[in-house]
Amino acid sequence: MVWIILALVGLIGGTIGSLMGLGGGIIVVPALLFLASYSILEITPQIAVGTSLVIMIGTGLSATIAYVKQKKVDYKSGLLFFCASGPGAVVGAWLNRLVDTEAFQLLFGVFILLMATVLFIRKYLKKRPYVKKRIEREYIDTEQNLYTYGYNILPALSVAFMVGMLSGLFGIGGGSLMVPAMVVLFHFPPHLAVATSMFMILLSAMVGSVSHMVLGNVNWLYVLALLPGAWLGGIAGAALNKRLTSEKLMIVFRLMLIVIALRLIYEGIV
């Protein structure tokens, strides 16, 4: 029964993670901690994070392959962001050792709620005049909308480092921060932001998971149970993403973040 539950957690986490560009850890880590609170699993926050990062390699790979076929991945931006997010993931993995269960859940919940708030005010922030960037690109989506987006290198690398550090610390892949940052700060179109985020998450998860393996923070039996569902979920999420308009995608994203955040904050306080 436990294996079936874990397989479903992997499938749901992979699907939602791929659909929103989150990587799936934002579902998998809270789910593992929730199961542990009812003694269904024996797992610490550190093991939950390390196991989640390994799972995100599968989700990230399957989702990235699907998004590559849809021609939605900005490889150059993804690789540039990874140059900072990779080292950040290593730092986050080491910081993870210092956080206990209650503090972990509370901090995680507040962080996610903050990201949801940013997304709610995104449309107001985008009304500000577009500022010329050092790197600029154009993208035409399936609805034939033309987007101009770009960024200055140093601020972009700073954001990416923070994303990587939070990925290693919370085991979430960093997409819950990177997608809003790309949309709000760099004016990425939502679908391109999600796909590029998954590509970056794949690379960051590889680095972060190795750090957690060295620290002994990976339960390989749980990985075996979660991975098949996560792989299929990555493919399913990319397919669903293709069917949603940009605005619908952001609405689902915001609501999902709020529900998860409130649950984590409650668990951290009680």
Automatic annotation (TrEMBL):
This is Probable membrane transporter protein. The keyword Ribosomal protein does not apply. InterPro entries: TM_pro_TauE-like (IPR002781), TSUP/Inactive_protease-like (IPR051598). Pfam families: TauE. The chain crosses the membrane at residues 7-35, 47-67, 79-97, 103-125, 146-163, 193-214, 220-240, 249-266. Keywords: Cell membrane, Membrane, Transmembrane, Transmembrane helix. It comes from the Bacteria. The keyword Transmembrane helix applies. Its main location: membrane. It is a multi-pass membrane protein. It is found in: Cell membrane; Membrane. Coiled coil: none annotated. GO terms for cellular component: plasma membrane. Belongs to the 4-toluene sulfonate uptake permease (TSUP) (TC 2.A.102) family.
